[in-house]
């Protein structure tokens, strides 16, 4: 049986690959369980300092597998239970101190939008399309879409996306701040390769620098809504003091100070 999600770790980089290409990487029960377990493993590993989230096939993620749901799910309670399982994986990524980059080629729709927003930096293809489309089949957003979308692009734009049958173009997604950048390719396959290559460049940039500091910066931004303004300032102060004591920071601060002294002479 083919694994529905793949995990590889190489020199600090964990690659999580959705692997249901024939179903546009839509979530069925098997993928939901694998997603929960694989994300938990990735963030718990001491040798993982950055995560790249990508997908096999022509699309990143079409959300929930509606066909599978209609055949295998007997009730709304079953759907709710499955959503909770997927949410565990979303929380693993978004609450971790590990930066996550997404490589999202092709179409991202429905709950796939929530999976995309698990990343802290997203790269898509120039021909990619992104949308909500839940209401088209009489369902409401899940998988963190309402929890993250307004924070990412603002409430008015979030409402435009969930209240219309609208798919954002790649340029619109960049303009709205939903993704960081879009890259081109000669055809769909080349574009998907370019998306993955650029996302890996981002991850390797983190790994080549102070990966721990990037991870803590991600944590501070992601966790801010749970704290008041003065609590956030206190957490920033605590975090920078803790970072200052790390071997990585000591070496980098010393190198910076030495370079500054040399240039001032």
Automatic annotation (TrEMBL):
Keywords assigned by UniProt, alphabetized: Lyase
Keyword Protein biosynthesis part of the UniProt annotation: no
Highest taxon in the source lineage: Bacteria
Gene3D superfamilies: 2-enoyl-CoA Hydratase, Chain A, domain 1 (3.90.226.10), Lyase 2-enoyl-coa Hydratase, Chain A, domain 2 (1.10.12.10)
Matches recorded under InterPro entries: ClpP/crotonase-like_dom_sf, Enoyl-CoA_hydra/iso, Enoyl-CoA_hydra_C
Family, per entry: Belongs to the enoyl-CoA hydratase/isomerase family.
Annotated protein name in UniProt: Enoyl-CoA hydratase
């Amino acid at each position: 049986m083919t694994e529905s999600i793949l995990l590889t770790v190489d020199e600090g980089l964990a690659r999580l690959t959705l692997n249901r290409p024939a179903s546009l990487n839509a979530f069925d029960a098997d993928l939901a369980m694998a997603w929960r377990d694989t994300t938990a493993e990735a963030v718990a590993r001491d040798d993982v300092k950055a995560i790249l989230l990508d997908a096999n096939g022509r699309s990143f993620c079409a959300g929930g597998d509606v066909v599978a749901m209609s055949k295998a799910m007997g009730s709304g309670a079953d759907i709710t239970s499955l959503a909770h399982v997927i949410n565990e994986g979303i929380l693993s990524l978004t609450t971790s101190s590990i930066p996550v980059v997404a490589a999202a080629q092709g179409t991202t729709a429905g709950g796939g939008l929530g999976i995309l927003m698990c990343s802290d930096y997203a790269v898509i293809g120039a021909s990619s399309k992104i949308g909500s489309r839940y209401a088209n089949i009489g369902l409401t957003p899940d998988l963190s879409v309402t929890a993250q979308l307004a924070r990412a692009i603002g409430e008015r734009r979030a409402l435009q996306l969930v209240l219309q049958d609208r798919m954002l173009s790649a340029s619109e997604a960049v303009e709205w701040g939903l993704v960081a950048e879009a890259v081109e390719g000669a055809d769909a396959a080349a574009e998907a390769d370019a998306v993955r290559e650029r996302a890996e460049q981002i991850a390797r940039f983190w790994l080549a620098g102070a990966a721990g500091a990037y991870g803590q910066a991600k944590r501070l931004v992601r966790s801010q809504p749970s704290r008041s303004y003065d609590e956030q300032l206190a957490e920033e102060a605590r975090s920078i003091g803790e970072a200052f004591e790390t071997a990585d920071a000591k070496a980098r601060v010393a190198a910076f100070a030495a370079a500054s002294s040399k240039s001032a002479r």
